[in-house]
């Protein structure tokens, strides 16, 4: 195990090895190289997000209207608050991590262990929060109708408030509206997941309520989604409507463009996976600290290396936060 | 490697800390303040920051040149520009103080930072230009597949 922190006897011999032109150990430098390549991977994802967003720049969902939930506050719109909380959790776990590294430099074993433990807790809170955020996003809130062209129609009342489809859809009894699942289907194909209401039920409900209007994905010159008149709404729904969308998955997205949901799942998922592996590595290092591996080595450099990774995960989140939730 | 020398000054030497631990807390406070500013702006979205400060120049070569140099002010909402600048500030302090880039050798620092910044800027430039081009084609052109 000495190899990881080797200072060999070759100092002064430039071409004999053991020379550290960058004054960083092998392990630390490799961690930096890994971080650079991982940073490029994440920027590839975020740049692809930017590409798709610029492609549909006049019809992209507004993040403030998508992420409005806070745990235990049902029906209270709280845009940004939860993700701000998550950001603080991650920044704070970065602080405890860097405090662990600092204590490691001073060879204070119990302090390193305490700070590592706090870092792990912070990471777990963050991943849990992200799971909750995913759950809320997948479940959806108001529901929408998707047109034949794949665009999303959302429902408003005349005061401009969003209306959930469940509040106006009329119940039309259908002889067999059970989902077409693998076990009773022809061949091995399952059908589309059945939604609570069918397109016909939503349309009937919409026609019966005169105070309902349709909002399209397209943003007007002030950046607000366009609201159609009652006549135009009826025409749009009857002529173009095709299916009901509740929540979001990789193909349909009630909040707007499906690509938004795809990138959301992919980028926050990839980041969440990084946090998860960071937690696992942190736990391993934590136990190594506790059993005294680094105390024997007289070097806590492993803590420093895993710290670099952990800060990098925080760094990526700073960018995800900006480009997904703020900009 | 056990005893690193830490550079304890931030803000170009204007703020010096007595110990590394104090510096960590100082940077944490700074990052928190920036995040709070971001969140507050993100919730309020002040009306005067929602439209670009300048409109693009019309005319010949120099107008085009001016449009390119001033593009962040012409084509971007000031609010978004503020968010991006604040993000880069946060990224700087996370890398420099939490990841101890401040204490690394100049060569390592340049190798990591310049490589990443160059490649990311290049990629973002190309993809955003292409995305905007496709948007224009979808919006204005008659031929929508042969481009």
Automatic annotation (TrEMBL), chain A:
Domain Heme-copper oxidase subunit III family profile: 1-327
Spans traversing the lipid bilayer: 30-51, 80-100, 112-132, 263-294, 306-326
Sorted UniProt keywords: Cell membrane, Membrane, Transmembrane, Transmembrane helix
Similarity-based family: Belongs to the cytochrome c oxidase subunit 3 family.
Species this protein is from: Patiriisocius marinus
Taxonomy of the source species: Bacteria, Pseudomonadati, Bacteroidota, Flavobacteriia, Flavobacteriales
Keyword Transmembrane recorded: yes
Name of the molecule in the record: Cytochrome oxidase subunit III
Any single GO CC term annotated in Swiss-Prot or TrEMBL for this entry: plasma membrane
Highest taxon in the source lineage: Bacteria
Subcellular location: Cell membrane
Automatic annotation (TrEMBL), chain B:
Membrane disposition: Multi-pass membrane protein
One Pfam family matching this protein: COX4_pro
Cellular component GO terms held in the UniProt record: plasma membrane
Transmembrane segments: 24-44, 56-75, 81-99, 111-129
The organism's place on the tree of life at top rank: Bacteria
Localization: Cell membrane
This protein's UniProt keywords: Cell membrane, Membrane, Transmembrane, Transmembrane helix
Protein name: Cytochrome c oxidase subunit IV
Organism: Patiriisocius marinus
Classification of source organism: Bacteria, Pseudomonadati, Bacteroidota, Flavobacteriia, Flavobacteriales
